[in-house]
């Protein structure tokens, strides 16, 4: 849940909630906003998503997600970012047992540990404050077993229904094209895991086909004048560890991730268009 004032903070504290001490409006102005969570053995939360436009809200509501009906930018302006959660029971649904927040790329790289994953949505999106990202720890280690991309609200809803997690950042942000999101599906079975990801332009596709990679059909630059870009994945790279974690980062954060030893696909997702560099 979210607290917007001292009275709400006191209530959460008295009722067994854990407070994340970072103000979600840090350096953005507005009221103090804090995230709280509570642990227990009954009906754990298994997925957390964010919305920042009306069709994202509609899709999450239609698929049974619960809205925390409070503005994360209370008094600060910016995108209308809302927090949603889901309690599921499929193979894709592993309980979330702990939450944390990061405020910069160096902080990000320190938090990448087994069982943890990062939301790509900047909780200060459009508000001008510090970058703030939510981190979630799973009860058990999960692996990425499928990846998709979607350029329409209908297919977005269908993927949520099938247990996919959406990377909550529009790949076409500020490019003039349609909203495009990457989705991934998780499993606890390491044998089903994806072991390598690539992004291609047209000139590289034949090599990837010969190497046994599978193509994700959606053009990540669809509707723009940019270079067509496609995701490719492979599951049988025995010399590579299973992928446990996928996110999208701002181009300014790339160097910090590379220095920390992470596998970063060095391709601007808005290649040769005017969109947000990531």
Q: Quick gist of this model?
A:
With 278 residues, the protein is of the alpha+beta class.
Describe the structure.
- It is a single chain.
- The protein is an alpha+beta fold and 278 residues long.
- The chain contains six helices and 15 strands.
- Strands 1-3-2 form a three-stranded antiparallel β-sheet. A three-stranded antiparallel β-sheet has the order 4-6-5, covered by helices on one side. It has a three-stranded antiparallel β-sheet with strand order 7-9-8.
- Helix 2 (54-62) packs parallel to helix 4.
- This is Si:dkey-30j10.5.
- InterPro entries: MABP.
Structural class by secondary-structure content: alpha+beta
Q: What about the largest sheet?
A: 3 strands, antiparallel
From the spread of the alpha carbons, the general shape counts as globular
The helicity comes to 10-25%
Number of domains: 1
Mean pLDDT reading: 87
Protein name: Si:dkey-30j10.5
InterPro entries: MABP
Organism: Xiphophorus maculatus
């Amino acid at each position: 849940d979210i607290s917007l004032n001292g009275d709400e903070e006191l209530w959460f504290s008295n009722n067994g909630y854990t407070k994340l001490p970072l103000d979600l409006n840090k350096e953005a102005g507005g009221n103090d906003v804090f995230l709280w969570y509570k642990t227990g053995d009954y009906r754990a939360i298994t997925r957390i998503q964010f919305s920042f436009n009306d069709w994202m809200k509609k899709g999450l509501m239609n698929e049974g997600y619960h809205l925390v009906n409070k503005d994360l930018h209370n008094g600060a302006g910016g995108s209308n970012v809302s927090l949603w959660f889901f309690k599921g029971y499929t193979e894709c649904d592993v309980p979330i047992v702990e939450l944390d927040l990061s405020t910069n790329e160096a902080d990000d790289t320190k938090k990448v540990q087994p069982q943890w994953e990062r939301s790509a949505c900047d909780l200060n999106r459009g508000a001008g404050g510090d970058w703030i990202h939510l981190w979630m720890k799973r009860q058990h280690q999960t692996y990425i077993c499928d990846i998709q991309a979607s350029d329409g609200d209908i297919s977005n809803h269908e993927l949520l229904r099938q247990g996919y997690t959406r990377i909550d950042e529009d790949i076409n942000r500020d490019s003039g094209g349609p909203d495009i999101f990457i989705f991934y599906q998780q499993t606890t079975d390491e044998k089903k895991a994806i072991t390598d990801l690539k992004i291609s332009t047209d000139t590289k596709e034949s090599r990837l086909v010969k190497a046994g990679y599978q193509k994700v059909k959606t053009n990540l630059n669809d509707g723009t004048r940019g270079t067509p870009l496609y995701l490719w994945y492979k599951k049988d790279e025995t010399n590579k560890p299973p992928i446990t974690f996928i996110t999208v980062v701002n181009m300014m954060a790339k160097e910090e991730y590379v220095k920390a030893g992470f596998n970063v696909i060095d391709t601007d997702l808005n290649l040769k268009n005017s969109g947000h560099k990531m």
